[in-house]
Amino acid sequence: MPTGLSSSGSVRWRAQLLSELCRSGCCLPQPAYPPGSGRSKACVCGSERATGTNRHLYRSEAGLRGVGPGIWRPGETSSGSRPRARPEGCCLRRPWGERPASETALLQGVARSTETSRAGGVILLQIKNMVKLIHTLADHSDDVNCCAFSPSLLATCSLDKTIRVYSLSNFTELPHSPLKFHTYAVHCCCFSPSGHLLASCSTDGTTVLWNTQNGQTLAVMEQPSGSPVRVCRFSPDSTCLVSGAADGTVVLWNIQTYKLYRCGSVKDGSLVACAFSPSGDLFVTGSSCGDLTVWDDKMRCLHSEKAHDLGVTCCDFSSQPVSDGEQDFQFFRLASCGQDCQIKIWIVSFTHILGARENEENKIQGKGFVLKYKSTLSGHSAPVLACAFSHDGQMLVSGSVDKSVVVYDTNTENILHRLTQHTRYVTTCAFALNTLLLATGSMDKTVNIWQFDTEALCQGSMEDQLKQFTEDWSEEDVSTWLSEQGLKDLVDIFKMNNIDGKELLNLTKESLADDLKIESLGLRSKVLRKIEELRTKVKSLSSGTPDEFLCPITRELMRDPVIASDGYSYEKEAIENWIGKKKRTSPMTNLILPSVVLTPNRTLKMAIDRWLETHQK
User: Fold this and answer.
1) pLDDT tens digits, one per residue of 530-559
2) Which residues contact 67 (CB under 8 A, 6 or more apart)?
3) 3-state secondary structure of 437
4) How far apart are CA 583 and CA 247, in angstroms?
5) Directed axis angle between helix 101-116 and helix 7-23, to 10°?
6) DSSP strand E in 259-364: where?
């Protein structure tokens, strides 16, 4: 939608667009009658047209049966069960670039309006050579639906019923690939955090677990209703797997026994998106009716909120949680995208003090839990089908029906780069575990592999990042930072004392107690700890060392990086000492490590070595 339109203007713009689509052969009728009735239906633009049982797509209560993964896909009916052909002239039968002239002109006008009215909004940063295309995979014979990274592998799945697995060292396909079991389109695939397991789900109603070492099938888990499975995700500790289906059912599977653990459902729509919080205490599902639903690890529904008109298409948590203070809250950043062409950022918080029965009841009722809207990112002129955070939480990538991939800086929410090499809808995108690689998949049957130039990233954004974490902060910036750290109660105190960025970095234990009159010792300690984290980051940025090259334990440049079973990279000696002296918990998430096996991160080591060579000259 062009920016700057009033609500009534947006309705007129949408009506104009839909009217053009209808005259050009659109077959997206309103749900006046159920599929199969053969009765006349009103198109979304208001006109009437006769529809036959097997000749048109339908917009039903489950959402728009058209674009977007998990909404409607070639190779299945509107109910998601059997294949059927799309009619000639259907606006979904053609590639995005093959539209009638009237539709093309209209959409181009919309794009021009969006670009010219973007002053003061999204800023496209021209960072030369920040990211480059290094490889294209073209092995699938149909649309690519999903791609996923493990520490050493890349998996892709497609409408062609297969899953393909590649080595990250040279992007060659593994000997046991492609993986074949599903009898219909494969909608989603994902690795367990350790990378030892791969899950895939399909229109055939099954979720399959694979051994990534040899490609053997470990388990076939059938959705209780037999409905097409649209999405699957592992929990951070690899003990559970969530699968969401077209009929709205969501199942939590026990990975040790391969048995159903818990089951629930949403009221309306198909489940098309799912994401676990980094701690694993909760997960979020997105439906084709536009709702985001939050569940705890016992499958109790904590909250549901309308997020996107016409349906959610994808959601993802940043892997970097933000801890609060005394009341032991944890805050997470969540991104969601949808058919409304928008990407929304949410702040999710959850109470961990749940010892007493009263608190347990509060948890069931959703008390102590907050899902708060933060902002909306612009950048696409058509439905956004995929979004994903980088592993360090510093970038967010999205893919759209407009055939573009957009990379955002999550701190400034500016656009860092726009990638336009795909020739059809971009259906999936995923960052590698250390943000140096990005994979994007499309209905053009290809997967593009992109590599970020770390030096260019540093040079291009160092000034902005330093400004963000130094004395250039305004009082309002400090207030925003306090809120994000769960210290909202201190905002008024800091404002009354005119604390800006420079003053913030100079605060001490004494000044917090004597000048700001913060009586709570625990609260003072928490503020100091957060300020020290800021100082460390400033020091890192000032030295020019990319943050992803620093060990999370020692905060020093890694020389021998390894990947632990929590998915994070550490200096080998540091993580070995951590495991040897302390409990088997993750230094980043504080969860029990499912395994103590450490995998050399050769990709990261090569990047560090290249960076060192450049800066030692």
Assistant:
1) 888 777 666 655 556 777 788 888 878 888
2) 92, 339, 383, 385, 401, 425
3) strand
4) 42
5) 160
6) 259-265, 271-276, 282-287, 291-296, 301-306, 312-317, 322-323, 329-338, 343-351
